[in-house]
Design a protein that fits this description.
Blueprint lengths: L4 E5 L3 H10 L13 E6 L1 H11 L6 E5 L15 H6 L2 E5 L2 E7 L4 E6 L2 E6 L5 E7 L2 E9 L1 E5 L7 H4 L11 E7 L10 E4 L4 E5 L7 E5 L2 E3 L2 E8 L5 E5 L5 H10 L7
Parallel strand pairs: 1-2, 2-3, 3-17
Antiparallel strand pairs: 4-17, 5-6, 5-16, 7-10, 7-14, 8-9, 8-13, 10-11, 11-12, 13-16, 14-15
Length: 259
């Protein structure tokens, strides 16, 4: 039963309006006593909440009050209780990012969508990428590169013309951002068992930052990335609005001027 709710919400007018409706429909309780966490907000707020509360090992049901809301469900006042009770569960796994900066300080974070390696100045980045000690590319001159999970492959990765991955593909997408050399390199798809190492080849002239979703480390020297299967997030989706279905829609969507 999903009858003991811990409610998390951002401060937008839409979220506060939905909150005022929900408190009359569900049993709101403390985080420890709850058996479900309902999140009101957009994808960004959901990512923050997942990272903050995943240690409690509760399922998350998101209600969109932002823009696209890929990780979220649409709110239906009339059908909310029914949708919640018959919602389907899906587990997703994050990436583990370990960064060493120019001062040889090490910083770690997880990323649910992607790890972004971004140029930090007007100079393009110059980086090498290996997976399991084998070269993917020896010197990529670009605005950066993305390593995306299947769940994150429809976010920044898609905007950078990267591939959309099936949720159960057990793959990661490595996608360049505005590549200059080699100009025609479109990226690659690798196993989610891969251990990725990205090195900044010119830390003085071409500084880069490493970003795990919204956690940034500047002046990165080396970045290690791999899937972290020790951490999982259980997300709940309405039966007619599953994450698998959303990904399939994106895979078949045709770009138009209205999209």
């Amino acid at each position: 039963m999903r009858d003991k709710v811990y409610l998390v919400f951002d401060k937008t007018k839409v979220s506060l309006k939905i909150k005022s409706i929900l408190i009359k429909k569900v049993n709101i309780t403390s985080l420890r006593k709850s058996n479900i966490i309902i999140v009101l907000g957009g994808d960004g707020f959901m990512l923050q909440t997942l990272k903050k509360l995943h240690k409690y090992k509760k399922p998350f049901y998101g209600i969109n009050s932002g823009n696209y809301g890929f990780l979220m469900n649409k709110f239906s006042n009339e059908n909310f209780i029914k949708n919640l009770n018959i919602s389907n569960s899906v587990k997703i796994y994050p990436l583990q990012m370990t960064v060493t900066n120019k001062k040889n300080q090490t910083k770690k974070s997880i990323a649910i969508n992607e790890v972004s390696i971004l140029r930090q100045s007007k100079q393009a980045s110059s980086i090498s990428i290996t997976a399991n000690n084998k070269n993917i590319i020896k010197n990529l001159i670009s605005d950066g590169v993305l390593v995306s999970t299947p769940a994150g492959s429809t976010a920044y990765n898609l905007s950078a013309h990267g591939p959309i991955l099936n949720l159960d593909s057990r793959k990661l997408a490595v996608t360049p951002i505005s590549p200059f050399r080699p100009r025609r390199w479109k990226g690659t798809i690798i196993s989610d068992k891969s251990k990725i190492l990205i090195k900044n080849l010119d830390t003085n002239k071409r500084p880069i930052s490493a970003v795990a979703d919204n956690f940034e480390v500047r002046n990165a020297k080396t970045i290690k990335i791999q899937a972290n299967k020790k951490i999982s997030f259980e997300l709940l989706y309405d039966k007619n609005n599953s994450l698998h279905k959303k990904i399939k829609i994106e895979q078949t969507r045709k770009e138009t001027s209205n999209n």
